[in-house]
Input
Amino acid sequence: MAVEEEGLRVFQSVKIKIGEAKNLPPYPGPNKMRDCYCTVNLDQEEVFRTKIVEKSLCPFYGEDFYCEIPRSFRHLSFYIFDRDVFRRDSIIGKVAVKKEDLQKYHGRDTWFQFQHVDADSEVQGKVHLELRLSEVITDSGVVCHKLAARDLECQGLPIVNGQCDPYATVTLLGPSRSEAKKTKVKRKTNNPQFDEVFYFEVTRPLSYTRRSHFDVEEEDVDKMAVRIDLWNASNLKFGDEFLGEIKIPLKVLRQSSVHEAWYFLQPRDNGSKSAKPDDLGSLRLNVVYTEDHVFAAEYYQPLRDLLLKSADVEPVSASAAHVLGEVCREKQEAAIPLVRLFLHYGKIVPFLSAIANAEVNRTLDPNTIFRGNSLTSKCIDETMKLAGMHYLQVTLKPIIDEICGDHKPCEIDPVKLKDAENLDNNRENLRHYVDRIFTVITNSGVSCPTVMCDIFFSLRESAAKRFQGDHDVRYTAVSSFIFLRFFAPAILSPNLFHLRPHHPDQQTSRTLTLISKTIQTLGSLAKSKSASFKESYMASFYDFFNEHKYADAVKNFLDLISSSGRRDHKRIETPIMLKEGFMIKRAQGRKRFGRKNFKKRWFCLTNHEFMYHKNKADHPLCNIPIENILAVEKLEEESFKMKNMFQVIQPERALYIQANNCVEAKDWIDILTKVSQCNKKRLSTYHPSAYLNGHWLCCKASSDCAAGCSPCTGGLPANIQLDVDGDRETERIYSLFSTYMSKLDKMQEACGSKSVYDGPEQEEYSGFVIDDPQETYKTLKLLAATVHTLEQEHAQYKKDKFMKTKYGSQEHPIGDKSFHGYIRQQSESSTCSIGMGEEQKFDS
Output
C-alpha cells in the first residue's frame, strides 16, 4: 500500500531480526526465571509476536520479521513481556526507536537498553487547534485581551484496554494562575472531532490606549502558555488515562493574532528529571527500514530497457544487470530486485541461463560448480524462494509440523546425549524422519514449479556441455541448488521459509539440523559421502542408508525436474492455500432473525475459495467462491467504531472483517484483491462505509443495492504468488546504482586499463569481471546517463516538496523531529528558503 504524493508513490517497509535479550531483571520469587516473548509495534499497535522462551533471563529468539508499513508512524517499538503462572502478561520494558533515527542503525546488530513503560511515555496521535488573541473594549472604555482556544480535532489517539473515549482539557497557564476547561467526551473513536471553543481573559483591564495589541501586559503574556491534555474516559475506579499533551507559549501570537496548526502529542512534562532508571536489560536488534519513492512508469523506461535486454548482451558480463552484481557490496543486494524485475516481465529464465552459462564456462573444476556466492547463485536462490514457496508448503510443511509437535529426541552425538536418552532409539527416530522427508522430496518432482524446471534444464545443459567427461555433473549442477540451497535451508530454518511461524525450540532445532545435514548429503551425489561429514557420529549414522537405493531416487528426481518437456499433468489441481488465520467477522445476516454480531473465526484463502471456520480443524461455516468476490476494500472506521476493518463484497452482501492489526489488514486486502482480479464481474465502484439502519453511511442512499459512491482501488490482474511492482523494483535498482556510483566510475577506469594494457591485472581492478572492455564501457556510460537523469528527477521532486512543505501542517505537525532533519538537509543543498521563520517561531 503506497502513499500517493502528486504522481509519486511512497512505500515503507521494514525488515527486523530480533536476536536476543540479556540481563532481564529476575522474577521476584524463589525461581527468579521468566517466560518471555517480544513484540514488534508500530507506535503502540502490535504487528508481530515472537515465541515464548521459557525459564530464562537471557532469552534467545533469532526471529525475522518483514512487513510493508501501510500507515504513518512515529516510533518502531519493541516490548518484552513476561508470561506468569496465571497466564497473565506483564510488561518488563520497551525499546522505542524514532522513525527519523532508524537510519542510524540500518543493517547492523545493535544492543538497545530497555526502558520503563508508563502512561506518560506511551504517547501517540496529533491535535489540530487554533489560538486567537483579540482586544475587547469594555463599556467603560478600557481594554482587556481575550484568548479563544479552539480544539478542532485529534487523529490517531491510542486505544487503551480495547476502547478510546477521549476528551480534552484546555488550560491557560501563567506565573500565578491556572485556569482549565474541558470538552465533551467523544465515545468509541480515536479520531475525535471536538470543534469546541474556550475563552480565557489574558490581561487585566487597563485604560484604553492606541497601542499594539501585544504591548499591553506584554511581560506577563510572554510567560503564559496554553496546555491541552488528552484523556481517555475510563469506567474503572483508577481514574481516567492520560493520552498526551501539547504546550504552546502565547508568544507564538507575537507576529499574528491567529495561530492554527497541527501538533504531535508529547509525554507529560513532570517538571523534573527522573532518577537514574533501573537496569531492565537489553535487546539485540538488526533493523533495515526502507522508503521507496516511486515515480510513474515512463521515468524508468530507459533504465528498465537497459536491464531487461541483459540476457541478449554479448558477453553477458557487459550487461547492465551483471554490472549491478559487480558493483554491489553484497550480491544479495543486486539479486533481490533483479529477480523480481525479470520475473515481473517474464524474462527470468533467459537471464539466469545467460549468467549461469557464463559462470560455468569460467569454472575449472566440476566439483566446485555453483559453490560460490556469485550473482548467479544468489539470483537462483531468490527465484526459488519466490516461485517455490508453495512447493515447499505442500512438500515439507506437514512433516515439519509433525517434527515440531512430537519433540522426539534425535540427538546422536554421544557427547550431547542426555542421561535419560538412548542412543539407538534416538538414531532410529532420526532415521525415520530422514526417510520420510527424503521420500516426500523425491516423489515431488511433478509439483516442482515450471520456472524452476526451466532453470534447472538450462543449468544441466550448460554443465554437461562444459564438462563432457564428467557424467554426474549434469546432476550435481542441479542438486547444488535444489538440495543444498532450497530443501536443506528450509528444513534447517522453517520459519524463514514460512513453514513455521517461529524459530523452533532448542531440541527441535537440533533435530532439524541433523536432518538437514543428512538430506543435503543424500542429495549431493558425492563420491564418498561418509567422508564428507566432519563429525564421526554423522558418518556412522549415514552408513545406515543404502547408498545405491538413495542415489537412484535422487537421479530420477533430478531428471524429472530438469526435463525440457512440459508436463501438463504436473499442474496441481488441488486448492493452493494462500493465507489463513484468525480474524473477527460480522454476521452477514443470512438468517432472517439472526443477530448481526461480531465473532472470532478461522479464515482460509485458497486459489478456489475464501472460507471461515469456527475453529481451525472444524468444517467451514461459509464458503465464498473466488468468482463471487466482486471487490475487496477498506471499511471506514466510523462504520462500527473499529480499526483495521475491510469488506469482501459479494453479489448479495458484503462480509465485514476486522484484522488483528494494520499490517495483517493490508496483507489480507492485497492477497484477496489479487486472487479475485481476474473476475469479469469485478465492481468499479463501492461503498466505503457500511449499510446500517436502512442507509449507507457514506452516501446516505437508502437502497442496499445502490451503486457504489467511490471508485474501487484494485489494479490490473497480477500473478498471485509472484506479486511484483516493476517500477518499485526499478527504483530500488536505481538506488543501488546511485549508492555505488564511485564503483561504476572505477569499473570504467578498469575497462580503459584493460583496453590499452593486456598484461597482469592491476590489483585495484581485479575485483571486476570484464570479458569485453569496449562493450562493458558502453553499458557503463549508458547506465551513468540514466542514473543521472533519475537523480535529477529525485532532486527536483525534493526541491518542489521543500517549497510546498509547511511546518505545522497535517503532514508535518509541530513536534515532528524528522521534519527538522529534512529542513536542514534541504537548506544545505538548496539556496531557496521556506517557512524557516515559522519553524524557529514555533520552536522558540
